[in-house]
Amino acid sequence: xxxxxxxxxxxxxxxxxxxxxxxxxxxxxxxxxxxxxxxxxxxxxxxxxxxxxxxxxxxxxxxxxxxxxxxxxxxxxxxxxxxxxxxxxxxxxxxxxxxxxxxxxxxxxxxxxxxxxxxxxxxxxxxxxxxxxxxxxxxxxxxxxxxxxxxxxxxxxxxxxxxxxxxxxxxxxxxxxxxxxxxxxxxxxxxxxxxxxxxxxxxxxxxxxxxxxxxxxxxxxxxxxxxxxxxxxx
Length: 234
Prior knowledge:
Elements: E1 4-15, E2 18-29, E3 33-37, H1 44-51, E4 57-64, E5 67-68, H2 74-78, E6 82-85, H3 97-103, H4 114-120, H5 122-126, H6 137-149, E7 155-159, H7 167-182, E8 186-190, H8 194-197, E9 203-208, E10 211-217, H9 225-232
Parallel strand pairs: 3-8, 3-9, 6-7, 7-8
Antiparallel strand pairs: 1-2, 1-4, 4-5, 9-10
Helix pairs in contact: 3-6
């Protein structure tokens, strides 16, 4: 298996006629957590969607575990071991929590069983028979994350998982990210909440105008704090 779970080189992307990404470059080693930071509209979520082939056109190179995926349809990219948690969560309102968990197909061996998932997310066990419409925003976010853990995906693309959630839920999600890392998952976080992301990630990629404009390693956070404040407006 390639040392890099994900390697993105000169990635360009379009929504229709709109050219959004302009040569994105970054890589993620097996077992790392990295973030894509930036202001709204910088192109961070589009990077995740482009990796998955969900934009109208893309150019460049996206290698997933050493396999070039730029010409693959989305379902084949997923089968390389990629799990995607979209910002809109995508919970099926008419299904119970447990039915939502069981819905996704297995794409690789080694996916978590229900007992392991419920151990990680006790709230979901308590609400396992509740329909999606009855779940709080935090519970829906937990469900959206938990659902992809059943599939066997080892590279997780998580889009704005803390947005609009109470601090106690944000703290819980941070604990989950740490736990998943210890289990060997590789995680790419698109985050607006820098305080949440800062202690979790090995490396931060700052995105602006559809490009990666700065790379900040964990041990450089203090010395580059002013620069990050300028980019992020935090």
